[in-house]
Design goal:
Elements lengths: L4 H10 L37 H11 L9 E5 L5 E6 L3 E8 L2 E7 L8 E8 L13 H13 L5 E2 L2 E3 L9 E11 L2 E11 L3 E9 L1 H10 L1 E4 L8 H8 L1 H7 L3 H11 L3 H19 L4 H13 L2 H11 L8 H10 L4 H17 L5 H18 L4 H18 L3 H16 L9 H14 L18
Antiparallel strand pairs: 1-2, 2-11, 3-4, 4-5, 5-10, 6-8, 7-8, 8-9, 9-10
Helix pairs in contact: 1-7, 2-4, 5-14, 7-13, 8-13, 9-13, 9-14, 10-12, 11-12, 12-15, 13-14, 13-15, 15-16
Length: about 450
């Protein structure tokens, strides 16, 4: 494994993997332990000079003329949202962790042994390894550096550093420090930027000379545009809310670990936990169980039940919501049942027989992602089934707004929580959806009416 990939692998292992549960459970996620982290191999950190301050002053003097600057190049993120300037000739490898969240590895190869550069960009509601929406750039910087370094054997004593403004950003901060790994030491530099909707980071670790040279040319610019969005982005949009709640998209993160060369013990640890989650939350114990449940969700698992319950209380025959609610109260039903029935009524009023089908369809991606990680299907098989769910969604709804509303009605029905209750998890999800919908480069910026086709 390339040394630079250790930070990426540690980040993958540090993400929180959770799963949706069946409606019989009290929550739609089942936490998977992340106590075990990567260990052993660490990025090369070669010894620096005896005086770090003298080295920095010397480098600054050499950089006084533009002709002395190292050759640089621009590296644009796969989603086209931002770009990084660093050494010329580096190899770029992009990974999408979840909707609205990408990671970029820049590898200098043998030209700069031990030099590590990792860049991340994510919407504020989809920060890798963090549940929910993050509030400040300082918190983001702390979280990202901890996530990248945890389990690598590498330690950094971070201090605040001067930061030149990143183009297109509303705020920029930087941190620096001595990086240590065993008896070796070097430098670390972190550069973090914030736009209205997103956070960005560039983490550099290496020997003193390489990091000093990198800092002379390193830059980050927020482009604000979007690269070409395809079927995979559409599919990730369908699971974006739960991925944000859970802190990661397991399917994409597990695939990244495989591509990075994670050892068998690391992969089996997560595979075992994925299988346990499927068993505990969904009763899935095999490939046959997985595919049967996915088909049930596509055809309608909770949606038919919601419509049947609504019919039982004559909800589909009542056109006035207030009258329907008053009728429920007259029957002395418990509050939870009333909440579920009203959610079903609102969903049916808006989308007819498609009422809360988005709730079912969104979770196809969740169980297939866990099925892939658990060894019940291949990545391609998981994506094929999710494509089927996405195509079904397009036939039922006219936009992401409609899909998301149906999803929220479904969550309210299933969790027996009112979307109007500010303290409920249903309201938290509604707020998360609203935040994501407002983001110009967010998960719902994908064209709803795009042609969905196999790209994998």
């Amino acid at each position: 494994m390339k040394k630079v990939k250790v930070l990426l692998l540690a980040a993958a292992m540090g993400l929180l993997f959770t799963a949706c549960s069946d409606a019989k459970e009290t929550a739609d996620r089942d936490s998977v332990s992340t106590e075990d982290r990567t260990s052993g191999s660490t990025p090369d950190v070669t010894p620096g000079s005896s005086s770090e301050e003298e080295t920095r002053e010397s480098s600054q003097e050499e950089a006084s003329g533009a002709e002395d600057l190292p050759a640089s190049a621009e590296y644009v993120s796969v989603d086209g949202v931002y770009k990084v300037v660093l050494f010329e000739g580096m190899t770029q490898e992009d990974m999408q962790l979840q909707a609205g969240s990408t990671m970029m590895e820049l590898d200098a190869g043998t030209a700069r042994t031990g030099f590590t550069a990792v860049s991340l960009g994510s919407s504020k509601a989809a920060v890798p390894g963090y549940t929910g929406s993050m509030d400040s750039l300082e918190d983001y910087a702390e979280h990202i550096t901890n996530m990248l370094l945890n389990g690598t054997g590498l330690t950094v004593n971070w201090e605040e550093a001067d930061a030149s403004p990143a183009a297109g950003a509303v705020k920029t901060i930087a941190r620096e420090g001595v990086a240590k790994s065993g008896m070796s030491r070097g430098q670390a530099y972190g550069y973090y930027a914030e736009s209205e909707d997103c956070y960005f980071s560039l983490i550099i670790i290496g020997n003193d000379d390489d990091v000093e040279e990198a800092r002379q040319i390193a830059a980050l610019e927020v482009l604000g545009g979007l690269g070409e969005r395809g079927t995979n982005d559409f599919i990730n949009g369908m699971t974006a809310v739960l991925d944000s709640v859970n802190g990661a998209n397991l399917r994409e993160t597990y695939k990244m670990m495989v591509d990075l060369g994670a050892d068998e013990s690391q992969l089996e640890m997560l595979a075992s936990q994925a299988r346990q989650s499927l068993s505990n939350s969904w009763g899935i114990e095999s490939t046959e169980d997985l595919l049967e449940m996915a088909d049930q969700l596509i055809q309608g698992l909770h949606n038919p039940d919601a419509l049947a319950l609504l019919n039982e209380y004559n909800g589909t025959g009542e056109t006035d919501r207030d009258a329907f609610e008053a009728g429920l109260k007259e029957q002395s039903l418990d509050e939870e049942t009333c909440i579920s029935l009203l959610a079903a009524y609102d969903a049916w009023s808006a989308y007819g027989d498609g009422a809360i089908a988005a709730w079912d369809l969104s979770r196809v991606g969740t169980i297939m992602g866990f099925g892939y990680a658990g060894g019940y299907c291949t990545y391609e098989e998981a994506m094929d089934k999710m494509l089927e769910a996405a195509q079904k969604a397009q036939t039922l709804y006219d936009s992401w707004e409609d899909f998301n509303k149906s999803y929220l009605y479904g969550y309210s029905y299933w969790a027996e929580e009112s979307l109007e209750d500010a303290g409920s998890s249903a309201a938290e999800r509604a707020e998360l959806v609203s935040s994501m919908e407002a983001q110009a480069g967010g998960p719902f910026a994908v064209d709803w009416n795009m042609e969905l086709k196999k790209e994998w």
